[in-house]
Write a structure and sequence with these properties.
The chain has 211 residues and is mainly alpha-helical. It is built from ten helices and two strands, in the order H-H-H-E-E-H-H-H-H-H-H-H.
Length: 211
């Protein structure tokens, strides 16, 4: 069963390859400029344990997240594929180069490398996720486009609301729309979210002054 699900994930990933190409024609991100351009974002993403309201959930940790994922996510907010009024407004105010710079700042000098280490046992509900996110949420060695996010150490309640949004179609992503539907119940989602949140992780709340 896992092999079949892994094959599905790879197939859909390959089909999605062309989706991110229009955003690849500008200069690589400058992390120093990105830190300056991120200044309005620190009000939410720079405060540990800050919470989104209506619905209530933890604002995600972004420091050391993959730059390519940040770029893809901000473009999805721009396009309304992620329905969040504040993030739509913030992302719509950014140029493609602004997005690249911010993503470079958030990632840091080098992307996080995948690891095979797993804390505890992988629940069966999370096995399909391993094809793209790795068994511990730190990714896989193979290059995937668009880049999947790091899940390890992310807030469990944020992961829950994201999975529910993909499952019910409020978030639109050709890969995740299908994968989230494999989680048949809210309890399945809670299990997956709690597992990845429990994994050791470099993800942190963003801080100014290059921290």
């Amino acid at each position: 069963m896992l092999c079949r699900l892994n094959g599905l994930a790879w197939l859909v990933s390959a089909a999605a390859l062309g989706m991110s190409l229009p955003h690849s024609a500008h200069a690589a991100g400058d992390p120093a400029l990105g830190e300056k351009k991120f200044y309005t974002c620190f009000g939410c993403h720079g405060i540990a344990n800050y919470r989104n309201a209506y619905p209530d959930y933890s604002v995600p940790k972004l420091r050391h997240q993959h730059a390519a994922y940040i770029v893809a996510a901000l473009h999805e907010y721009q396009a309304g594929e992620r329905p969040h009024p504040t993030m739509h407004a913030q992302a719509s105010s950014l140029s493609d180069q602004d997005i690249e710079d911010i993503a470079a700042y958030l990632q840091g000098p080098e992307p996080v490398k995948p690891s095979a280490a797993v804390a505890g046992a992988v629940p069966k509900e999370a096995t399909a996720c391993a094809a793209c996110h790795g068994a511990n949420g730190l990714g896989v060695d193979a290059p995937l486009t668009p880049k999947p996010p790091l899940l390890a150490g992310q807030h469990a309640d944020y992961l829950e609301q994201a999975l529910i949004a993909y499952r019910n179609g409020r978030r639109q992503n050709v890969i995740m729309d299908g994968m989230a539907k494999l989680l048949a119940s809210d309890e399945d989602i809670k299990i997956v979210a709690a597992y990845f949140a429990s994994q050791p992780s470099p993800l942190r709340t963003a801080k100014s002054e290059g921290q």
